[in-house]
Write a structure and sequence with these properties.
The model has no long low-confidence stretch (mean pLDDT 93). The strands form three sheets. Strands 1, 4, 5, 6, 7, 8, 9 and 10 form an eight-stranded mixed beta sheet that branches. A two-stranded antiparallel sheet has the order 2-3. The protein is of the alpha/beta class and 216 residues long. It has one domain: Rossmann fold. A hairpin with a 2-residue loop joins strand 2 and strand 3.
Amino acid sequence: MKIHILDKTPSLLNKFIAQIRDEQVQKDSMRFRKNIERIGELLSYEMSKSFQYRNENITTPLGTKAIALPQNNLVICSILRAGLPLHAGILNYFDDAENAFISAYRHHTSEEEFDIRVEYFASPSLEGKTLILADPMLATGKSLSTVFEGLKQHGTPKEIHLACVIGSTKGIEYLKEQLPKNTTLWIATVDDKLNRKGYIVPGLGDAGDLCFGEKL
């Protein structure tokens, strides 16, 4: 698996990462969602540099110009519900992509142990396409690997891109073993630790709750 960690090169991205981590700024849920969307746009821009391109002639009022345009047939798949603002940011840049939505949540068998349950799939065919799996939080890596297993029934993608906001070193190592070799991870920032409940430290908390409010 190829890995691109965007904040290794300081940029405006750092401002958005700082704001989604800041517990005072987090109180503004609209701002939190917007910053996740912005990060999705930046991830998409960097990701686009790895796509396949072909020159096409574009007619202007005064002539023609050959421009290299992307040729990838994209499917953006988001994990509900925290993935929605990230999905919006990616779709802002890849506006002609097909879309898929998957539900995945932690089912706790004890305070520290859990499995991942998937109960909803809505996906086009993935056969031969470029799959972008979007999930803001890459903690243990179990959600992304479980979702990918479920998506196999929809076909085999040509290549896979993971778009994440914050991840853990342990989660990334787990996905290296679980996902195909033609997978590329695009992630804004990485923290080293998980707590005993499998949450990223220092992380930012529960992205879904911060976007849309606490759940029962």
